[in-house]
Amino acid sequence: MSIRSGGLQRKSKASQEIPSSSMADIAFLLLIFFMVSTVFQKDKKREILWPEAEASEKIDEKQKDILNIWMETNGDVYINDLHWEMEEVRAVVRPLFADNQQLVISIRSDQNVPYRHIDLLQKELQGAGALRVVFAAELEQDIIRERR
Fold first, then answer.
1. Are 118 and 107 in contact (CB under 8 A)?
2. What is the pTM of this model?
3. Longest Cα–Cα distance in the chain
4. What is the 3-state secondary structure (H, E, C) of 28-90?
5. pLDDT tens figures, 85-127
6. Structural domain of residue 20, as residue ranges?
7. One domain for residues 95 and 28
């Protein structure tokens, strides 16, 4: 003889649906948490005399697609504020460029940096396969506008 349930069934008073009334509160709290805990990288302030240019273009790239390389007058190289030897530039830039083909390399230097240092840096960047290299400069403000 088999045992039957005897007609008694549990009726649960709990809802089968997930409450969604507090989801907006949780999302808002997560948003505030990520805004407060995010750290933005800032370049170190460097007192330099920018090279002057008669014409220039503004780079319309996202900050993550720009690699800043600073060149000091004594030949020191800083890539994103970390000091590297000139011989190490190729090894540092090659994997960065391989990961991001849209990478633009911005060479920033004082106008008094000897050209031999800039030339060495360019050769290292060529060896790394960097295709998009720009030189940061200050636009000459002495351009006289024509009167209409």
1. yes
2. 0.57
3. 109
4. HHHHHHHHHHCCCCCCCCCCCCCCEECCCCCCCCCHHHEEEEEECCCCCEEECCEEECHHHHH
5. 988 989 999 998 888 888 888 888 888 888 899 889 989 988 8
6. 5-37
7. no
